[in-house]
Write a structure and sequence with these properties.
Elements: H1 24-30, H2 34-63, H3 73-107, H4 116-134, H5 163-191, H6 204-235, H7 249-283, H8 290-303, H9 320-329, H10 331-345, H11 354-377, H12 379-385, H13 389-419, H14 425-452, H15 465-497, H16 536-541, H17 543-557
Helix pairs in contact: 2-3, 2-4, 2-15, 3-4, 3-5, 3-7, 3-13, 4-5, 5-6, 6-7, 6-8, 7-11, 7-13, 8-10, 11-13, 11-14, 13-14, 14-15
């Protein structure tokens, strides 16, 4: 088997995450190893996922019956604000960055991220931001204007404390963390690829992290500027958004959605990358249309900056035909990806592992989110459905369906890489089916409620029979989603306690992260195979077959 030159030896203590003997806790707290930082991203994100999920259950329990049972209106406003903020900024975006931290350097044959200390700094900003965000509950009330914090609501006092100001500071920290992370990913990908790893030989997950990092660098400074302006308006007498002082409230919406719509793809593109790694491995086929997939990823990234105003059709301040057409247009590269995934599965030897089931879950749920979003891209329909539960259904099918299902697919797929042990398949499949059923019980009825005219963000409703029954069904579904995490947590706990280990490459996967040991050593690789395609491990393991095939082809040509 052909092997490239041996990797350089680790340098002085501290290089490549190697450090003098220290207490394990201090080792984790001070590590600059991208793998340990990646694991810390995952653990921190799952913690905030649990917090945000608990808030969601509180919301659904309150809405199970008409009337106000458990939470005052102010408390309810804080619940849905903190739920949305935490899910988006402390779970979905960071956990995908966590996968990137662990996997990207391994997939391109690098020893570490380009700036290890900056990488550690990027991570530690996140738990600090979470503490600041939730400290609003200790100061008289958390933020309560929704995760969009639209002025003029966000210019008003929220409770008796400084919850909204803390929300702004927390998001500025998270944004800084994302920008530093984006710079690190781009520098790593462009400068630290192994010999032979050209751009069009990079695994697709790495490609999606590259495009995602570009989106972060271009969009995040825009929302950061808006957050600073809002902080000035609230505390220093500014007048950017306050109409009473000559400000323009719609300015916030323009700036907020100029960031937040590309941010949707920050939350979905890495998920698409994960699925593009999982499906070929468990179909025993190469991904169909590799280059088309790359161009579609870049196309989604570019078009993502041209559709922000479709969130603002009902404001009457945007050019409806242009933004409607651009919104429909972005479905084209997304459709290319779906056709590529389906073609990959076509006539494949499909292996129904838990990772693959979650990948199928991603495909079906994200497809529904795409279809119900098409209705909102049409201004006449959007005018009817705007600010109803249809919109909540859409965002959850896109973000939960497009991110959480992909996160679990990646977790079950790469867990043996993280630990050397596969998660239990029986518990995994129980986890999948509980989540799939709970998810659809929770969010599918929201489409009907939206058509019936139930507004979003309300804490109470008149006891219409149709609304009550569907809300109760959603509450049952949300409880089922919460229960579905139990087998996953039990699975992780039991697997970590196992003494035996699985093979280094238990899935017979194709990409470079599976070339090294599971888990990898501190310096990642002792050696690397020659890289001739986007499947270097497959090439190395099947070199004899490929040689025979090439000889036969050559002979035939003669």
């Amino acid at each position: 088997m052909a092997i490239t030159e041996a990797r350089p030896e680790a340098g002085p203590a501290g290089s490549y995450g190697i450090s003098p003997q220290r207490h394990p806790i201090m080792e984790w707290l001070t590590t600059t190893d991208h793998k340990k930082i990646g694991i810390m991203y995952l653990v921190n994100s799952f913690f905030w996922f649990s917090v945000a999920g608990l808030l969601a259950v509180f919301i659904r329990v309150e809405l199970a019956e008409p009337g106000t049972q458990y939470f005052a209106e102010q408390q309810y406003n804080e619940l849905f604000t903190m739920h949305g903020t935490t899910m988006i900024f402390l779970f979905v975006i960071p956990i995908l960055a966590g996968f990137g931290n662990y996997i990207v350097p391994l997939q391109i044959g690098a020893l570490d991220m380009a700036f290890p200390r900056v990488n550690a700094l990027s991570f530690w900003m996140l738990p600090l931001a979470g503490i600041i965000l939730f400290s609003g509950y200790l100061t008289g009330g958390a933020a309560c204007a929704g995760w969009t914090e639209y002025p003029t609501v966000s210019l008003q006092p929220c409770g008796t404390g400084v919850g909204t100001d803390l929300w702004i500071v927390a998001l500025l920290l998270i944004g800084t963390s994302s920008i530093l992370g984006g710079v690190n990913f781009l520098t790593t990908i462009f400068n630290m690829r192994a010999p032979g790893m050209t751009m069009f030989r990079m695994p697709l997950f790495t490609w999606t992290m590259l495009v995602t990092s570009l989106l972060v660098l271009l969009a995040t400074p825009v929302i950061a500027s808006a957050l600073v302006m809002l902080l000035i308006d609230r505390n220093l007498g500014g007048s950017f958004f306050d109409p009473a002082k000559g400000g323009i409230t719609v300015l916030w919406q323009n700036v907020f959605w100029f960031y937040s719509h590309p941010a949707v793809y920050v939350m979905v593109l890495p998920g698409m990358g994960i699925i593009s790694e999982v499906l070929p491995v468990f179909s025993r086929k190469p991904l169909f249309g590799y280059k088309a997939f790359v161009f579609a990823t870049a196309g989604i990234g570019a078009l993502g900056f041209s559709v922000w105003a479709h969130h603002m059709f009902t404001t009457g301040t945007v050019l409806l035909p242009f933004f409607s057409i651009m919104t429909f247009l972005i479905a084209v590269p997304t459709g290319v990806k779906f056709f590529n995934w389906i073609a990959t599965l076509w006539k494949g030897k499909i292996w129904f592992t838990t990772a693959n089931l979650f990948a199928f879950g991603f495909l079906s749920m994200f497809l529904i989110g795409g279809i119900d979003g098409v209705f909102l891209a049409s201004p006449p329909v959007d005018f009817a459905l705007h600010d109803t539960y249809w919109v909540i259904a859409h965002i959850h099918y896109v973000l939960f369906g497009g991110s959480v299902f992909a996160v679990y697919a990646g977790m079950y797929y790469w867990f043996p890489k993280f630990t050397g042990k596969r998660l239990n398949e029986g518990l995994g499949k129980l986890h999948f089916w509980l989540q799939m059923i709970g998810f659809n019980l929770t969010f599918m009825p929201m489409h009907v409620l939206g058509l019936l005219g139930m507004p979003r963000r309300i804490s109470d409703y008149i006891p219409f029979t149709d609304w009550t029954g569907l809300n109760q069904l959603q509450t049952v579904g949300s409880l089922l989603i919460a229960v579905s995490t139990a087998p996953f947590l039990a699975n992780v706990w039991l697997t970590l306690r196992r003494k035996d280990r699985d093979p280094e490459n238990p899935w017979d996967a194709n990409t470079l992260e599976w070339w090294t040991t599971s888990p990898p050593p501190a310096h990642n690789f002792d050696s690397l195979p020659e890289i001739h395609s986007e499947r270097p491990l497959f090439d190395a393991q099947h070199a004899d077959e490929l040689t025979v095939h090439a000889d036969a082809t050559t002979t035939g040509a003669r």
